[in-house]
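fyi for ur records
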Amino acid sequence: MMISPEMYVEQFSDVSYYEMIKERDNLIRYIRKYEKLEKAGDRSGEKWMIDPQPDVRYQMYLEYLSKLCACMKEKYNKEYVWGDKKLSDGKRG
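which gave:
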C-alpha cells in the first residue's frame, strides 16, 4: 500500500536540503526507468505480479515528486535565498 502524497512529503519536513535532493533523484530515477520500459512495451518480470504494480507506482511517484519539489522550493528559499546558506558550502553528491 502506498501512502498519500501529503504523508509522503511530511517525512521530509525536517531533513536537510541535500537529503531532499537525494530523494528527488531517486524518484526521478524510478520514473525514467519505468518510462523507458513502458516505451519499449516491456511489462515482464515479477514486479508486475506485486501490488502496487509499476504503473501505479509511476503515477504515485509523479505525485510525490510534485509535493517534494514544492517542499524543496520552500526550504531553498528559506535557507539559501533569504538565509545565509550556500549550496557550495554543503557536501557534494
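The radius of gyration is 16 Å. thats all i got for now
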